[in-house]
Amino acid sequence: MNKYAKIVAMDSLDLASKHCKPCEGGTAPFKKEEYQPYLKSVPKWKDVEGKTIERNFKFENFKHALDFVNKVGAIAEEEGHHPDIYLHSFNKVKLTLTTHAISGLSENDFILASKIDKID
């Protein structure tokens, strides 16, 4: 059996119910064929060169953008997995997820993306 055969398309609900696991390195980042099923479960996120996923958000005003950033921060702290957050142009937020310890993507990135999508 192909080692990727176990990877099945999962919906965002499945990912949102999981929790991020500590990653101290020593684990290889996902290869494209490994992360593709995960990416399908968070379709609003874009793959960036196989190392990160990102999503852009636009809000009515600065207060709503900042409220969103604070909600993302609370989830990130709870999960122990932190995105790069860019609040710009007063009402836009760009989030970038990667697993820094392995310089690439892991299941944690997709779990956090799924949880963030639940705020949207």
Task: List its salient traits.
about 120 residues, alpha+beta, Gyrase A, domain 2, four-stranded antiparallel beta sheet, about 40% helix, disordered N terminus
Quick overview:
The protein has helices at residues 12-16, 32-41, 62-79, 107-119, and strands at residues 46-48, 52-58, 84-88, 92-97. It has 120 residues and is of the alpha+beta class.
In whole angstroms, the N-to-C terminal distance is: 38 Å
Q: Could you describe the largest sheet, including whether it forms a barrel?
A: 4 strands, antiparallel
Which CATH class?
A: Alpha Beta
CATH topology name, in short, is Gyrase A, domain 2
As laid out across the biggest beta sheet, the strand order is: 1-2-4-3
> How many strands?
4
**Sequence stretches where pLDDT stays below 50 over 5 or more residues:** 1-9
Shape: globular
Structural class: alpha+beta
The sequence of SSEs as H and E is HHEEHEEH
- Number of DSSP helices? 4
Q: How large, in whole angstroms, is the Cα Rg?
A: 14 Å
Indicate the proportion of strand residues. Answer: 15-25%
Total domain modules: 1
CATH architecture name: 2-Layer Sandwich
Q: Portion of residues in helices?
A: 25-40%
